[in-house]
Design brief:
The protein is mainly β and 376 residues long. It has 2 domains: 3-248, Porin; 269-375, 60s Ribosomal Protein L30, Chain: A (2-Layer Sandwich), CATH 3.30.1330. Helices cover 13% and strands 49% of the residues. The protein has helices at residues 3-14, 284-299, 317-337, and strands at residues 26-37, 40-43, 48-52, 55-65, 70-89, 95-97, 99-102, 104-117, 128-141, 146-151, 163-169, 171-186, 193-215, 227-248, 269-274, 305-309, 345-349, 370-375. The strands form 2 sheets. Strands 1, 2, 3, 4, 5, 6, 7, 8, 9, 10, 11, 12, 13 and 14 form a 14-stranded antiparallel β-sheet that branches. Strands 15-18-16-17 form a 4-stranded mixed β-sheet. Helix 2 (284-299) packs across helix 3. The longest helix is centred in the last third of the chain and has 21 residues, at 317-337.
Length: 376
């Protein structure tokens, strides 16, 4: 099944339990499993190829989000692929497969990744897309990869032509790199947890793996087994589709029921925060207003705080909807910094609807670029 189809299927099941995606905050951990398509390990000398079947991949990570969409993490991974074919270049120039190929190609890697949570909610779905890249160290373990073939070793004059040979491989490490693209789906029933779906491309530069060839019938002069050992530089290119789970330690806790002593008729208080054109970052004046709203909320009892984002009519309706959500998220994050409980805040984006100042389409009206904080 293609990654796009997997994403659509996941959305169908996750929508009933998902919430509006929020960027990761602070410390988080994650784990992923999936299928990897290593294909073949090829030597840079172009004399050996090891073909593999589709195999499992697993990884675990721990990271930190800086609150602006950027994340940094360290990760350990494991890949395993059964060997389906081994072919080598014989001394007479013929490139052919070895008999009885067997073994498993195992790759371990330790990586340092940088990721970015894209501030978009495609098609209004409750998902957080992200992209990333990483550098690190990988180790190819081909210790149990082997096969039988022929090799024209140079023996004394009594030895003529190719002789039966057993070929086996060792292990080596090298520089590794990767890129990834995916999406996170926050789970409403499990605050702090998010389901992830990801495509990843992983590569290793040339790893100098020992290749051992041993004569299986013995030298005809003295009966001593003869052979040779060479270093072949193998490279690896791997694609993988992964599903996983992530836990954000900075996410809000499970909502607490409002005490019955809170007056049901508490009057609503409203604060307006204005933004620059096409921006979702808070100005100094905007932070002052948010601080006033936070002070008002913490000094009196309230049941909930509504954060409603709006835009003017310039730009497309879809872009404006996304922008209004980002503005509301920025105000909510500032309120939390000022001491307001995140679990009491609800976020809604209205885009270019509900204009404060009615205008025609395409008009940059400053008073319409706003977020309204309603404390109830």
């Amino acid at each position: 099944m293609k990654p796009a189809a997997l994403s659509a299927l996941a959305c169908m099941f996750l929508l009933p339990t998902a919430v509006i995606a929020q960027p990761v905050s602070g410390l988080y951990i994650g784990a992923k499993v999936g299928a990897n398509f290593a294909g073949s390990f090829e030597s840079s000398q172009n004399n050996t190829k090891i073909s593999t079947d589709v195999g499992p991949v697993g990884l675990a990570s721990i990271g930190w989000s800086f609150g602006n969409g950027l994340r940094a993490e360290i990760e350990g991974s494991y890949r395993s692929n059964n060997i389906s074919n081994i072919s080598t270049l014989r001394n007479n120039g013929v490139f052919e497969s070895l008999g009885n190929p067997s073994g498993t190609a195992v790759t371990y890697a330790a990586m340092a990744n940088v990721l970015y949570d894209i501030p978009l909610h495609p098609f209004g779905l409750p998902l957080q897309p992200y992209v990333g890249a990483g550098l690190g160290y990988g180790r190819q373990n081909l210790n149990n990869a082997k096969g039988n073939g022929f090799s024209s070793f140079q023996y004394p004059a009594t030895t003529v032509g190719p002789v039966p040979t057993a070929v086996s491989f060792g292990s080596a490490g090298a520089f590794a790199y990767q890129v990834m693209i995916g999406a996170a789906f926050p789970l409403k029933l499990l605050p702090g947890f998010a389901f992830t779906l990801e495509y990843r491309f992983f590569g290793m530069t040339n790893a100098s793996v020992p290749v051992n060839r041993v004569n299986t019938v013995g030298d005809r002069v003295n009966g001593v087994l003869a052979g040779s050992t060479a270093q072949n530089d193998f490279k690896m290119l791997d694609s993988a589709v992964l599903v996983g789970i992530r836990y954000d330690f900075g996410a809000p806790a499970t909502p607490v029921e409002v005490p019955v002593s809170v007056p049901a008729t508490l009057p609503a208080r409203s604060f307006l925060v204005f933004f620059d054109w096409d921006k979702s970052t808070l100005t100094d004046r905007a932070r002052q207003i948010v601080a006033e709203a936070a002070s008002s909320a913490t000094k009196t009892q309230y049941t909930r705080i509504e954060i409603n984002g709006y835009t003017d009519t310039s730009g497309t309706a879809q872009d404006n909807m996304n922008l209004s959500v980002r503005r509301a998220e920025a105000v909510a994050a500032e309120l939390v910094k000022d001491g307001v409980s995140r679990q009491a805040i609800s976020i809604t984006g209205f885009g270019q609807t509900h204009l404060l100042v009615p205008t025609a389409d395409g008009v940059r009206e400053p008073q319409n670029r706003r977020v309204e904080i309603v404390i109830r």
